[in-house]
What does this fold into?
Amino acid sequence: MKTALNLYQYVAPAVLAPVSFLLWQREYAGDLKLTAAAWLVPMLWAYIVPGIGTNVLKMWEFDTRLRLGRFRPHHGFVFGSATAMIAWVVHAGPAQDVYDVVREGLVLASLLGFVNLLYDIEALKAGILIVYNEPWARGESAEAIAMDYAPWFFGGFGAVYGAGLAAMERLHADGALSLSVFLGAFTLVLSLAIVLPTAGYVLQSRHRYGHWGTRPIAKRCRNV
It folds into this structure.
């Protein structure tokens, strides 16, 4: 599995990044504002959030050949290209109403939360990813380590990403997605995708463990 994941992190983005961009461009009939939202939001998020988590907070670490500190420099393309492709596959068409905005958020929250949970479990088992959280400190399984953060970060990101993209589709359909409106909406969606999942994670960590979960936890005996 480690060999497969090592190959995937280079081969998949090289294929999925350009293909997902072209598919979204076709989906939106060449509109570059909507295409940029669908393609760039997950890539930027995957540089900002894990970048802070690895090299600033030192909660996560990648054990790969190419690294900048604890962070792999191509991570945004690894996560972002796959996420953009998954979102394209389940995209049912431009949002028509508020129901579609909510539905798109729920679909991507569920799907991205599940897929990335499975990916991180395998990455943890293979030693490509190390997460210094409370379950890790207690010597618990890769599944327990991933379940502590993955639903919040990946599911939360999916909810904001899906709903935000659908809301921009509605603005575009109404003729209200000017460049200035797009830039504001893009910034808002990316900001909410960073802040809301992180807030959910730190609050649950505080409730469960008595700390905010933003500093590496020292290794200790299981269930102590």
